Amino acid sequence: MHTTIPLKVHYYGTPVVLVSSTNPDGSTNLAPMSSAWWLGQEAMLGLGASSRTTQNLLSTKQCVLNLAPSSLVDHVDRLALLTGTPEMSEHKRATGYRYEPRKFEAAGLTPQPSDLVRPDRVLECPIQLECRVTGHLPIDTESTSARAIHVTVLRAHVDSSVRMLGTNYVDPLAWDPLIMKFCDFFGSGEALIPSRLAAGWRMPGRLEQAS
Ligand SMILES: Cc1cc2nc3c(=O)[nH]c(=O)nc-3n(C[C@H](O)[C@H](O)[C@H](O)COP(=O)(O)O)c2cc1C
């Protein structure tokens, strides 16, 4: 039997993308996100309007989308409550965010120079997509201030471990994406670790409470 309830969150399970972007001082910012969908060589990213990443993407028109495998869950979680901007909303501060200008070090990840765009790639991510920002739309409602950012893939770097050798395809059996489902982390369909984001959002029934 179905019942109608005012669902608080609609994060049904999407791959985690680490977005590299260029800060005003030229350094690379790195932020986890998962509101991304793909069509051909195009992708749409749903990003909060005030995040450093959004500001960087709209001003520099470049980014790298680093697809995180489930094995990087601890590294991604270390980034969860960090922001590359010192000016953060009261809501973000109350959620437990802190300013961190050196995200690669904080996450224990390795920067790798890109070919066509300025921000660095994440060496540990087996799929890295150099992109240009093609356009953006506002998403402004009573509860949300975000941007739908359209990016176009310029160059894809794919590690041989996840490639179908001899083809231009990723091997779906070899590629194990880190999935964010209702603010908790999953890989190969299995629950991984409790996420700091879920703790910050005070999500009910999250993994920590279940264990
Ligand atoms: C797994 C995960 C997924 C996230 N997905 C999104 C997302 O899709 N869109 C978004 O705006 N923020 C998302 N966030 C929150 C951002 O990472 C957060 O706003 C962060 O402050 C962005 O960093 P920045 O301010 O340095 O850009 C996610 C966080 C985590 C840990």
Describe the structure in your own words.
The relative contact order is 0.20. The chain is globular and about 50 Å long. The protein is built from 6 helices and 15 strands. The chain has 211 residues and is of the alpha+beta class. The protein binds flavin mononucleotide (FMN). Residues 16, 29, 31-35, 46-48, 51-53, 80, 83-85, 180, 197 line the site of flavin mononucleotide.
Biggest sheet character: 7 strands, antiparallel
Number of strand segments = 15
Shape: globular
Q: Could you name the ranges where pLDDT drops below 50 across 5 or more consecutive residues?
A: none
Helical/strand content category: alpha+beta
Helix content: 10-25%
Our count of helices gives: 6
Structural Rg: 17 Å
List the helices and strands in order.
Answer: EEEEEHEHEHEHEEEEEEEHH
**Average pLDDT:** 95
Give the distinct bound molecules: flavin mononucleotide
Span of the ends, CA to CA: 28 Å
* Major β-sheet strand ordering: 3-2-6-11-12-5-4
Brief write-up:
With 211 residues, the protein is of the alpha+beta class. It has helices at residues 52-60, 73-79, 90-95, 103-107, 196-200, 207-210, and strands at residues 14-15, 17-22, 28-33, 36-39, 42-48, 62-67, 82-83, 98-99, 111-112, 121-122, 127-140, 145-158, 179-181, 184-187, 190-191.
